[in-house]
């Protein structure tokens, strides 16, 4: 049985041209559809049956459809750098510096301000340079837990001011230090509210100060001795539960102007030997109002701890980031894991292990500062909806980062310069086209880049040459960008119809061809008595005509190409290019392909049809009727090439690829598999050739249309040589047999000779004349001697 298999390939409209898919009704909608979309404002651009939205297409497609380049609205984005102050190249000066710049005069980031005009889908990029300035001022605020367990730590911190000042002078000549302390909220169950405990929360004979939430003991100052003096007067306090109210203190330090932060590097050292309360824990004391993130200091004391809950971690992150504060958590080893997790949530923060009595606090601060300052991380403010930003960093030693790591560089030393490439892209028309401002800054630094975003939501032609209530639009619309933009309730290419009168039988009748039942040939919709043809997923394919009866994709094909790739499909018929003819434009009128080497058309043995020779002499074949497979000498002509390609031997073995690639080689097992003359409609020449080893090989040569084919038997027919083993065995056997025969003959001759000699002896014996007797000269060998003394006695 035979089965027909039909393969259907479906293409969704969303996979096609985004400009076509947008179904744009005016130029503004078109350019928001994508970066490649353009709008043709040429008045006579639309063909009959084409909808208004087909003015929106890819720019190259609009040109191919006949729209003048000058009539295509295709605005592009642009960038302007407004402020571009160079980064500061400043060296640390020992001694007194006369022309010392102010902190606000030091520049570490470039540029500082720019404007971007953004077109939907069209990215705009700019380069940002960051360089860590030497001798950059530093503000450090030391925030310490003064609960009773930190009593021995306080003794070491009392001399911290001058010691830390000396160490920090090695890094910067402009260093300010401040001090604050915290305990806990002053309500139950965090502290005891009995009168005696409110005066002295410690047990026994310990003299402690009254509990408090947070105190700003010393605002930021360059006087280290004042730090030692004021801190030396501090006393330990106490509370009931283990977690402390440090988050309340951090919030006040971040937002209160009384701290005295300058626009320089800001460090907050948070020292404790306990955990922390956070948002929600205030309910234990009946406090339910969320922390408002505002300053509530009176006489440098936080007065609203009983009113507002602890801040959340996210709230702290926001305030620390907004105020460019880098946090160093100096905590005991017991609480290292807790604060390591907290560090992962707070950008530009570090954790150091505090000894039991805070004796290592200076080294801890120096190490943490070096760690924080060796990394720069860019952060941006909240982006408008529809705006995306990408970072790519070029860091020290040629390290390049992108995606999530593209906003940061590590292992930066003072004086190192790193570069970032920042790309901003918008989609559609964010914020209804109103300008937006975003800011990019390195975390922990006060400097920032201000970026003004302007969105291109309309075309220039929508602002120029606009005619409201135009006669071209039947006084019912605005003529802009080459087309009518109808008022509400009006439809049609010229706004000539009311939307309430669209679906009437009279109008539908004008959209039927030859009184057929199909409206717009089922390829469009009847709008205001005129057919507007459907769109195809492929933007190159279109319906057209008064009744959408035409298209440009249902013409004849050749080699799977529309109109053979040599013409245009117009209303389902091919309009061929010059020098081409036929229904599928697949017949070439160029005779140059039929010229033989003798400059004759088809070698004078055929005619040229559609650029291909049709040979009239059956003996001749090939693209120009010059090949004669059955003519004498064909076998000898191709012998060497067949030999080198089939067997890798012969005189052309080394140049086989260069000289012998003009035919297709097909191998067969034996001679019976070779093509026979009657098997094909073209002549086949059988060949038998011999190589240098007297081996025969068999092949056929034929020309199939424009290709040459050689079928060859894959084994050589070589004459068989002598069988060595039987010959050797025969020679050996012959030698052995001859030897045995000679030996037997010799033996036989010896027997005959012996018998003759014996007979002769017997005969002579019979004829002997002497008799047997004693030999007269014979003497016996035995001598008998008698003993004279022998008497016969034993």
UniProtKB/TrEMBL annotation:
InterPro entries: EGF_extracell, EGF_integrin_1, EGF_integrin_2, Integrin_bsu, Integrin_bsu_cyt_dom, Integrin_bsu_tail, Integrin_bsu_tail_dom_sf, Integrin_bsu_VWA. Coiled coil: none annotated. Residues 635-723 form the Integrin beta subunit tail domain. It is found in: Cell membrane; Cell projection, Invadopodium membrane; Cell projection, Lamellipodium; Cell projection, Ruffle membrane. Keywords: Calcium, Cell adhesion, Cell junction, Cell membrane, Cell projection, Disulfide bond, EGF-like domain, Glycoprotein, Integrin, Magnesium, Membrane, Metal-binding, Myogenesis, Phosphoprotein, Receptor, Repeat, Signal, Transmembrane, Transmembrane helix. Residues 747-793 form the Integrin beta subunit cytoplasmic domain. Its main location: membrane. GO terms for molecular function: C-X3-C chemokine binding; collagen binding involved in cell-matrix adhesion; fibronectin binding; integrin binding; laminin binding; metal ion binding; protein kinase binding. It is a single-pass type I membrane protein. Residues 26-459 form the Integrin beta subunit VWA domain. PROSITE patterns: I_EGF_1 (PS00243), I_EGF_2 (PS52047). GO terms for biological process: cell adhesion mediated by integrin; cell migration; cell-cell adhesion; integrin-mediated signaling pathway; muscle organ development. Disulfide bonds join 19-459, 27-37, 30-67, 40-56, 202-208, 256-295, 429-687, 457-461, 481-520, 486-495, 497-511, 526-531, 528-563, 533-548, 550-555, 569-574, 571-602, 576-585, 587-594, 608-613, 610-656, 615-625, 628-631, 635-644, 641-718, 660-695. GO terms for cellular component: cell surface; focal adhesion; integrin complex; lamellipodium; melanosome; ruffle membrane; synapse. This is Integrin beta. It comes from Astatotilapia calliptera (Eastern happy).
């Amino acid at each position: 049985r035979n089965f027909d298999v039909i393969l259907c390939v479906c293409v969704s409209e969303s996979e096609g041209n985004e400009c076509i898919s947008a179904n744009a009704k005016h130029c503004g909608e078109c350019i928001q559809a994508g970066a490649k979309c353009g709008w043709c404002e040429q008045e006579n651009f639309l063909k009959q049956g084409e909808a208004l939205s087909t003015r929106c297409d890819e720019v190259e497609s609009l040109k191919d459809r006949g729209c003048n380049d000058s009539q295509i609205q295709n605005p592009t984005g642009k960038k302007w750098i407004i402020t571009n102050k160079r980064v500061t190249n400043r060296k640390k000066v020992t001694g007194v510096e006369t022309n010392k710049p102010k902190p606000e005069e030091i520049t570490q980031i470039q540029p500082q301000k720019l404007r971007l005009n953004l077109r939907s889908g069209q990215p705009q990029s700019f380069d940002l340079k960051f360089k860590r300035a030497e001798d950059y001022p530093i503000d450090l605020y030391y925030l310490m837990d003064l609960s009773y367990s930190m009593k021995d730590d306080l003794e070491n911190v009392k001399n911290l001011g001058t010691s830390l000042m000396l160490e920090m002078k090695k890094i910067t000549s402009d260093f300010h230090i401040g001090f604050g302390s915290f305990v806990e909220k002053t309500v139950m169950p965090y502290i005891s509210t009995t009168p005696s405990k409110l005066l002295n929360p410690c047990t026994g004979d310990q003299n402690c100060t009254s509990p408090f939430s947070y105190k700003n003991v010393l605002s930021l100052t360059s006087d280290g001795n004042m730090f030692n003096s004021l801190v030396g007067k501090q006393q330990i306090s106490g509370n009931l539960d283990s977690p402390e109210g440090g988050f309340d203190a951090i919030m006040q330090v971040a937002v209160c102007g009384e701290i005295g932060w300058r626009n320089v590097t800001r460090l907050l050292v948070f020292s404790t030997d306990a955990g922390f309360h956070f948002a929600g824990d205030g309910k234990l004391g009946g406090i339910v109002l969320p922390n408002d993130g505002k300053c509530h200091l009176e006489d440098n004391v936080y007065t609203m701890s009983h009113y507002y809950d602890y801040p959340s971690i996210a709230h702290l992150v926001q305030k620390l980031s907004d105020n460019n504060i880098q946090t160093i958590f100096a905590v005991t080893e017991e609480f290292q894991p807790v604060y390591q997790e907290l560090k992962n949530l707070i950008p530009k923060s570090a954790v150091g292990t505090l000894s039991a009595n805070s004796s290592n606090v200076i080294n801890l601060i120096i190490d943490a500062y070096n760690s924080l300052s060796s990394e720069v991380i860019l952060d941006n403010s909240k982006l408008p909806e529809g705006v995306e930003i990408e970072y790519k960093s070029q860091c020290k030693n040629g390290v390049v980062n992108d995606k999530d790591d593209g906003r940061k560089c590590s292992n930066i030393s003072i004086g190192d310069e790193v570069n970032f490439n920042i790309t901003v892209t918008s989609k559609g028309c964010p914020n209804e086209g109103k300008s937006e401002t975003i800011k990019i800054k390195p975390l922990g630094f006060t400097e920032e880049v201000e970026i003004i975003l302007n969105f291109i939501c309309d075309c220039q032609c929508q602002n120029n040459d606009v005619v409201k209530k135009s006669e071209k639009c039947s006084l019912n619309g605005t003529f802009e960008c080459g087309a009518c933009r109808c008022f509400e309730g009006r439809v049609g290419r010229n706004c000539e119809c009311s939307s309430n009168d669209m679906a009437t039988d009279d109008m539908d009748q004008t959209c039927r061809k030859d009184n057929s039942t199909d409206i717009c040939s089922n390829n469009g919709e009847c709008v205001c008595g005129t057919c507007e043809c459907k769109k195809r997923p492929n933007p190159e394919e279109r319906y057209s005509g008064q009744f959408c009866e035409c298209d440009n994709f249902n013409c004849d094909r050749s080699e799977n190409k529309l109109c053979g790739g040599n013409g245009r499909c117009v209303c389902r018929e091919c309009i061929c290019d010059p020098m081409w003819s036929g229904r599928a434009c697949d017949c070439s009128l160029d005779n140059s392909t039929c010229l033989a080497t003798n400059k004759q058309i088809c070698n004078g043995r055929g005619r040229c049809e559609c650029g291909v020779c049709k040979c009239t002499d059956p003996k001749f074949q090939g693209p120009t009727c010059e090949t004669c497979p059955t003519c004498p000498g064909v076998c000898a002509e191709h012998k060497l090439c067949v030999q080198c390609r089939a067997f890798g031997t012969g005189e052309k073995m080394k140049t086989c690829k260069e000289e012998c690639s003009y035919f297709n080689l097909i191998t067969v097992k034996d001679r019976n598999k070779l093509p026979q003359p009657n098997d094909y409609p073209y002549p086949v020449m059988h060949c038998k050739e011999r190589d240098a080893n007297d081996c025969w090989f068999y092949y056929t040569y034929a020309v199939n249309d424009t290709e040459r084919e050689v079928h060859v038997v894959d084994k050589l027919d070589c004459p068989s040589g002598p069988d060595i083993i039987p010959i050797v065995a025969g020679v050996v056997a012959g030698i052995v047999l001859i030897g045995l025969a000679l030996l037997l003959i010799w033996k036989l001759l010896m027997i005959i000779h012996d018998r003759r000699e014996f007979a002769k002896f017997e005969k002579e014996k019979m004829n002997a004349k002497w008799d047997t007797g004693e030999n007269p000269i014979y003497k016996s060998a035995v001598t008998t001697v008698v003993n004279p003394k022998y008497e016969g006695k034993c």
